[in-house]
Amino acid sequence: MRHLIIGAGPAGVVAAESLRQLDSGSDITLIGDESEPPYSRMAIPYLLSGRIGEAGTYLRKSTGYFEEQNIEVVQDRVAAISTQNRSVTLASGDSRAYDRLLIATGSSPASPPIDGIGLPGVHPCWTLEDARAIAARAAPGAKVVLMGAGFIGCIILEALAKRDVELTVVELENRMVPRMMNQASGGLIKTWCEGRGVRVLTSTRVEGISGGQQLEVSLSGGETLLADLVISATGVRPNTEFVADSGVEVDHGILVNEHLQTACDGVFAAGDVAQGRDFSTGDYSVQAIQPTAVEHGKTAASNMVDGKEVVHRGCLNMNILDTMGLVSTSFGAWEGVDGGQSAELSDPDRYRYLDLQFDGDVLVGANALGLTQHVGVIRGMIQTQLRLGRWKDRLLENPLQLMEAYVAAAHGVSDGVNTSV
Ligand SMILES: Cc1cc2nc3c(=O)[nH]c(=O)nc-3n(C[C@H](O)[C@H](O)[C@H](O)COP(=O)(O)OP(=O)(O)OC[C@H]3O[C@@H](n4cnc5c(N)ncnc54)[C@H](O)[C@@H]3O)c2cc1C
């Protein structure tokens, strides 16, 4: 059996390892187009903040690891796939045949349509190559403009702040991390950052960038910022160009079924590129986070092996973000569901916030700020779809009773539980 995997990120690497465990005699080839050993983008902020070196970003640290696993790693770019011939064509002109194919090509930064976005000194923060370019300009005291305060933007923000740059964040929406946190908590993150010397401009658009060594960034309000470095973190799009005319169907990402198989026999997709099932909604959407990539990689690998059939029940959309020491989390249906109820607790002076969303007596989503002790319980409650019974009403009165509610509901205990906060 020849297993071919396109993309040597977390989804591809975990799939290759799982295949090796499940199918010791098969040929496994991992094709990646970056000129680095397989690495984790998640580790780039740690590299930028100086906490690790480049080798610390590598997904597998020991030299010769992939050879030992009998996994062939090829550095090339897949230019096209033929699902009829069961082969892929590489940019080098070479071609490779497969019995089972996994597409794990991740996503790329979406470049906003802004004049000057291609100027030297304007970079996304997506690859190790980007990180090197950013590190070269982000010296202490350098003026840095960060476009976008989404999940990735806020992770980079933390790393840049550690480099002692003079940082301005420009966000189009009216709060920080708008696709992860609600108005109240996103607003608190902004105040927190401002209190630590970062200028944050929300409801503001970058209109254009010009200049040479010193860049000029024009904003929608009429102001012009001077910058030594502009970082663009305005969203990503799945890497799907090479599947054109192959029969593999693409919506936002590559469409897969509950086995992570595409519309084509023997072809699977995983990670940022795949439009997989969402645990909370049951709908199929792209979840561009590493835990989803890893779970997809494992599940797809199981289904690539003959005689195996694993149903993917869906990944919980979960984000944990540390913004200059303030930890924010979002889980599942954090914006709530039709007909649902919610409980909110806000202590802005202490930067603590909790918002719970219920569907009937089941917790289905949450936003939390500065309350890290509840992360495991919230996740457990949502993933097990725990019926809370009358504990739901207690949580509506006091959302901080999460642990008591979890213990009582999970063990069928209704009385005798210490309910003090
Ligand atoms: C700065 C940063 C910080 C992040 N922090 C977090 C975090 O804290 N938590 C979290 O959950 N997620 C985080 N993420 C997101 C996370 O890194 C991604 O969700 C994860 O990398 C997805 O894994 P993947 O294997 O699907 O794709 P990728 O890691 O993107 O790997 C895909 C690989 O395929 C290659 N490829 C693409 N096209 C081709 C082709 N045609 N031929 C061959 N190879 C190809 C790509 O170059 C890439 O090397 C972060 C991302 C960034 C950029």
Q: List the ligand species.
A: flavin-adenine dinucleotide
Helicity, as a percent range: 10-25%
The top-level CATH class of the largest domain is Alpha Beta
Q: Assign the CATH superfamily of the largest domain.
A: FAD/NAD(P)-binding domain
| Radius of gyration, CA atoms, in whole angstroms | 23 Å
Beta-strand residue percentage: 25-35%
Low-confidence stretches: 415-421
Cofactor: FAD
Domain FAD/NAD(P)-binding: 2-277
GO molecular function: oxidoreductase activity
Pfam families: Pyr_redox_2 (PF07992)
Structure, described:
The N and C termini lie far apart (58 Å). Residues 415-421 have low confidence and may be disordered. The strands form seven sheets. Strands 3-2-1-7-19 form a five-stranded parallel β-sheet. It has a five-stranded parallel β-sheet with strand order 9-16-10-11-12. It contains ten helices and 26 strands. With 421 residues, the protein is of the alpha/beta class. The chain has helices at 10-22, 44-48, 65-68, 128-137, 151-162, 183-194, 290-304, 375-384, 391-397, 402-410; strands spanning 2-6, 27-32, 71-75, 78-82, 87-90, 95-97, 100-103, 107-109, 122-124, 143-147, 166-170, 199-201, 206-211, 215-219, 224-227, 229-232, 236-238, 254-255, 267-269, 274-277, 284-285, 318-323, 326-332, 341-347, 352-359, 362-369. It folds into three domains: 2-108 and 236-304, FAD/NAD(P)-binding domain (3-Layer(bba) Sandwich); 122-232, 3-Layer(bba) Sandwich (FAD/NAD(P)-binding domain); 333-410, Enolase-like, domain 1 (2-Layer Sandwich). Helix content is 23%, strand content 29%. A hairpin with a 3-residue loop joins strand 13 and strand 14. Bound molecules: flavin-adenine dinucleotide. The site of flavin-adenine dinucleotide (FAD) has 34 residues, from helix 1, strand 2, helix 2, helix 5 and helix 7. Keywords: FAD, Flavoprotein. GO terms for molecular function: oxidoreductase activity. It comes from marine metagenome. Residues 2-277 form the FAD/NAD(P)-binding domain.
